[in-house]
Amino acid sequence: MAAPLEERFRTVRDLLPEYRVEMLRGRIVVNESGTWQHNTVVFGIMRRLIGTVLDRGWEIWPNITVHLGEHTDRYVPDLAVVPGSPRMRMDHAVCGDSTTLIVDVVSTDSSYDDYYVKPQGFAAAGVPLYLVLDPAPRAAKLFAAPEGGKYGREIVAAGNESLFLPQPWGFAVQVGDLW
Hints:
This protein is an alpha+beta fold. The chain has helices at 5-15, 36-56, 111-124; strands at 20-24, 27-31, 59-62, 65-67, 74-75, 79-82, 88-90, 93-95, 101-105, 129-134, 139-147, 150-158, 162-165, 171-174. The chain has three helices and 14 strands. The longest helix is centred in the N-terminal third of the chain and has 21 residues, at 36-56. It starts with a helix and ends in a 5-residue tail after the last strand.
């Protein structure tokens, strides 16, 4: 008999600790580490966030599992910004509603999941802000105001436009500066 999905997920995660292993709608997804272009975008957003993060005593955690609830998916975003002493599910999993911002950089294999699958899971878990950065069109999409398992607002900025991050952030990110 096949092992339950959760057990198979843990086995794959344990066997491949250097990879990002996610569970998305009944699929176990193994992601390689990012390309230099991907990592440049991650660094760009980290550079913009770091002052506020340090001022408020928060932390930026790359590649941490976000716990969305029992018997649900397990997502591993590129960055999770957490307050001091966030609620943890396990040592490797922060509770979604205990984050201030989640960031994913789209790759060729992750586009559908980043734009459609993950926003549903993150909203249902109470993640306040989910930012998707897409290098191909040089655009950013912010999902905000989770309520009733969905995000109430979706804001898109491209090119040299500014994307305002609402409270608890309260500042704009120049999208063009991220590439």
